[in-house]
User: Which sequence fits this backbone?
């Protein structure tokens, strides 16, 4: 059985080169994610690189971002959400030496540089804000946010002694209830430290509770005066870009309590679709057990598929195809509707 849906997509991002569909073994289930607000260095430089790039490349214009690329190449930008140590197990200060906090691994070594010209997020001291953290591959865990001490030197690589001893914000298993330009996001409310001014780093550690893997994010911020809840920050309006797409869902095989399905997403519009996220709802209790050529997650009845390679891109006329295996209870209807980047298929 096959169904097709036409969808208008809002917010298609700048073009990236080529459809990035590479087979990933179903058993690979690494978490990935990064702070998008306030923006971590890798994410801020990735966005800067998109704005300065041509032909799908990234070419950061910010001097610190350009220096990071010169030191370690562009792989860290394409994998901005992968600044991690796989076997940290809470031993952060034990295994990360001073100077390496912002880039523990060699891939991200360029982001350790002590400079005062990294892209910054403007914040208000003591304000309540909504932290946003990309949920590229969701997993449970605890996020701890530290801030640099007054008088620290931004022109030196970050040291453990530069940070306040106690995190000003900490959250365990925050909900995935937001959506950013590169997919679903964890979001939670937190209060920024009071009596801070000028340039600082918010240092975030995400320690997974189902694995020893941990993620490290340096968000460069500029604190202004004041405390308490600031007025709602105005967001620049986005110009809607309508892109025609089609979704094809086909059951390849089916047995008494299981099935294999293949899904194809085609960009029939005139602009590339970047950071695609395809969602649907199962109405009869179906469960996805493993997938290939995409990262597929399920929460309750809601299923979300994303590119298994970086931000992912579908050029005009291009398609991405992935497959998965699932279980059912004897009734296995095709999903009634699909969403792509939060736009409903009609």
Assistant:
């Amino acid at each position: 059985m096959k169904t097709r849906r036409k969808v208008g997509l809002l917010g298609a991002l700048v073009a990236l080169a080529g459809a990035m569909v590479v087979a990933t073994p179903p058993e690979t289930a690494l978490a990935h994610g990064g702070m998008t607000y306030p923006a971590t260095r890798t994410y801020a430089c990735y966005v800067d690189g998109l704005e300065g790039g041509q032909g799908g490349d990234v070419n950061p214009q910010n001097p610190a971002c350009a220096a990071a690329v010169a030191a370690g190449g562009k792989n860290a930008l394409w994998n901005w959400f992968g600044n991690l140590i796989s076997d940290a197990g809470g031993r952060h200060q034990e295994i990360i030496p001073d100077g390496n906090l912002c880039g523990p691994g060699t891939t991200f070594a360029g982001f350790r540089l002590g400079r005062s010209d990294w892209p910054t997020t403007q914040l208000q001291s003591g304000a309540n804000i909504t932290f946003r953290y990309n949920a590229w591959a969701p997993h449970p865990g605890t996020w701890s946010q530290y801030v640099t001490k007054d008088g620290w030197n931004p022109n030196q690589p970050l040291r453990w002694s530069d940070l306040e001893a106690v995190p000003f914000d900490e959250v365990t298993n925050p909900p995935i209830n937001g959506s950013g330009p590169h997919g679903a996001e964890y979001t939670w409310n937190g209060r920024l430290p009071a009596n801070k001014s000028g340039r600082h780093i918010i240092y975030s550690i995400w320690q997974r509770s189902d694995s020893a893997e941990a993620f490290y994010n340096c968000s460069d911020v500029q604190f202004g005066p004041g405390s308490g809840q600031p007025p709602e920050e105005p967001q620049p309006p986005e110009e809607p870009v309508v892109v025609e797409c089609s979704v094809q869902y086909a059951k390849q095989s089916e047995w008494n309590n299981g099935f294999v399905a293949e899904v194809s997403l085609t960009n029939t519009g005139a602009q590339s679709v970047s950071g695609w996220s395809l969602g649907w709802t199962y109405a009869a209790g179906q469960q996805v057990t493993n997938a290939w050529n995409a990262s597929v997650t399920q929460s309750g009845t809601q299923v979300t598929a994303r590119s298994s390679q970086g931000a992912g891109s579908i050029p005009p006329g291009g398609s991405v195809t992935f497959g998965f295996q699932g279980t059912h209870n004897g009734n296995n209807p095709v999903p009634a509707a699909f969403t792509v980047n939060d736009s409903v298929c009609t």
